[in-house]
Predict the 3D structure of the following.
Amino acid sequence: MDKAVYAGIDVGLEQLTVAVHGHSSWDRPREFANTKRGHQQLIRFLQRCGAVVHACLEPTSTYHLALCYALHEAAGCMVYVADPKAVRDFALSRLRRAKTDRCDARELADYLRLLEPTPWQPPRPVVLHLRCLARRAADVTQRCTALKNQRHSAAYGLAPAAVLRDLKKELHEQTRRLQQLRREMLHLVCHDAELQQHYQLLLSVKGIAMITALKLLAELSMLPAGLGKGQWVSSAGLDPQPRESGKAVHRPRRLSKRGNAHLRYALFMPVLSATRHCPAVRAYYQKLLARGVAKLAALCAVMRKLLQAIWGMFQTNTPFNPARFCQPTR
């Protein structure tokens, strides 16, 4: 029977700290460089420890992605990307007091061995590139908004003409870069059959146009295959959390917000538009308001409902059906 080993990897900017359960490195974790060469050295070390390697790590911005792909492609290796909050709560439940890279690596190995999370599914490279472009476009959009505000303030603040010219020139350059990024995103979508199909389905929703469809597609395409609509809602952090205990504690439900903030932001503006221009969405929104739900809470509920509708559209490959979004009251 092949020996299986459980490894916890703490990912840093320049260094990887590895602890393997049941191995001599448990008492003295090993360290490797967070480079392509260091990844290969780490994989060879893990393969010497056992025939089947289960490696667990936490997402660290984007510094963990190259290691995840290297582990996934290595023979006899399975990689798991754990939720940092889940690992933190797991460590607190074991009354851990120290907080070091070596302790984190040991906790990740124990977390993997005892709880057996779901293995990581690598996203397709085209999907990863699309998300990078979309998030970069979001950053440039924020910069354009800031420049417009600065130009408006400078004009009313009697700033010299040189300042106004410089702001105008920078705004023009940022706008040009933003348009180029969007063209690159459309190019990726148009040359991939699955992305093109989902893009057209998103455009069928009244309130979602090209820019919003690209943002949503970039974030939704990164979700692992096989998730249910409830898991989509949880991934976006739109799941309500009840706070009830006994007879005394009955707090209002709040969104967990333990999910993809970029996806929530991408959903907010199309929901605002749909509540004004789509009769079915507006009817559902007004029904919530009539029940005494606050406006912001009602908008969040519509966001959750719209995300579930998009999940159904992707699963059945059918355009948005307003009649199914808000069933008439009988």
Notes: The chain has three domains: 4-115, 125-191, 220-243+254-325.
